[in-house]
Amino acid sequence: MTREALVVLAEGFEEIEAVTPIDVLRRAGVQVIVAGVGEEIVTGSHGIRLAADLKLEDYAGTPDAVVLPGGMPGAENLRRSEAVQRLVQRAASGGKLIAAICASPAVALSGAGLTEGRTVTCYPGFEKQLPAGAKHSTERVVKDGSLLTSRGPGTALEFALALVRELAGEETARRLSEGMIVRTP
Description:
Blueprint: E1 4-9, H1 15-27, E2 31-36, E3 41-43, E4 49-51, E5 54-55, E6 65-68, H2 74-80, H3 82-93, E7 97-101, H4 104-111, E8 119-120, E9 135-136, E10 141-144, E11 147-150, H5 156-168, H6 170-179
Helix pairs in contact: 1-5, 2-4, 5-6
């Protein structure tokens, strides 16, 4: 059974944090759908434009994983989007994997109330935006139940491989890691 991951892009997203999970998940055989908030051509924080498969507002399903890249103002635009907030709430209530990197754990997920009582990591400095009930970690990738968070562009490959572990299994993650010559601890 093929697993489905929905990667959500909002204007100002961090390009590395979007493209890396899309690429690595597709290498793992995961069906990846790229959804743009309000539009199908979305511009990243460094001026790179990506074509989404569809507008998020046209997506009616519940994927096995929701992936939120960070970047500014991308994370803030994710927080402001009612469609994003409904999607992550629907995914959370269904026990689906919710993954966010960089500013998005603190900005987009905290805005949806999903970090309360959870251990998360985020881009340095954004931990100040976490609610009092969230526990901040400085680990590069943190999994707490169905919530997967990571720190920033430099951790995007580790984040993507953690997504692969969750959606396609440890053996697939190991094979990809070796094939891409990723140094593992």
